Structures are given as C-alpha cells and as structure tokens.
C-alpha cells in the first residue's frame, strides 16, 4: 500500500510501490487522506467537492502510471487524521507493507519525519518503508 498526497515525495513513494509490486507480482493500493478543507472552500454548499476533485485527479494519475508499468492500481480516498486513517486501513486489510514519504504537503515540519509518517511508523503493526 502506498500513501499519496500529491507532493513530489509521494511520486517517489509511488515509484517505489510500482517497483515492489512488479517484483512481487501483485497489485498496488493507494490511499490519500484529506485532513482538512482549505478555508477558501468553506463558503460552498459542499466544501469537500473541490478537494475531492484534486484527490481524484491525483489518484487517476497514479493509476495511469501503474498501468503503464503493468500494475493494477486500486485507490481509496478518505477524510480524517491521515496517520490514523492510513494505519487503520492498512491493518484492516492486512497489507504486507506501507510505503510512505518522509514529508508531504502539510505545513508541519518535524526534524526527521513528517508528522504523518512519524505516526504511521510508531503506531503500525505492519512494516513501514519510508521513502525520502
């Protein structure tokens, strides 16, 4: 399973996921978790819609890249706390590995890992690969 957020680093995560999926002859599952709706959309009746469209576009791009490399790609888009949602989703389906980047698009900076990857590394019972 790969955790994607649209950042440059998440493209490296996807590349690593494709590489490992090819070696293991398996499909790849991508997840993105929307943690908050930007204030510029709060005036809309459905403020999550523009954010979902961006997430959908990102996941479609990942699906195309996987298809070009002969890998079947399934996706999940969710709302909530990214670290918690990623960990729970991976454990609920008993994935072999979680592949995640060190820092994504959040504004929070930590010394070694981003807050999401830090949470996943410390809370997951499934092996985690960190991609820089």
Your description of this structure?
The chain is α/β, with parallel strands linked by helices and about 130 residues long. The protein has one domain: 3-Layer(aba) Sandwich (Rossmann fold). Helices cover about 45% and strands about 20% of the residues. The chain has 4 helices and 5 strands; from the N terminus they run βαβαβαβαβ. α2 links the parallel β2 (about 30-35) and β3 (about 75-80). α3 packs parallel to α4.
As laid out across the biggest beta sheet, the strand order is: 1-2-3
Number of domains: 1
Coarse morphology: globular
The CATH topology is given as: Rossmann fold
Structural class assignment: alpha/beta
Largest sheet: 3 strands, parallel
Order of helices and strands: EHEHEHEHE
Key traits:
18% strand, 132 residues, 3-stranded parallel beta sheet, alpha/beta, 44% helix, Rossmann fold
Summarize the model shown:
The protein is α/β, with parallel strands linked by helices and 132 residues long.
Give the helices and strands, then pairings:
Layout lengths: L1 E2 L4 H17 L3 E7 L13 H21 L4 E7 L2 H11 L5 E4 L13 H9 L4 E4 L1
Parallel strand pairs: 1-2, 2-3, 4-5
Helix pairs in contact: 3-4
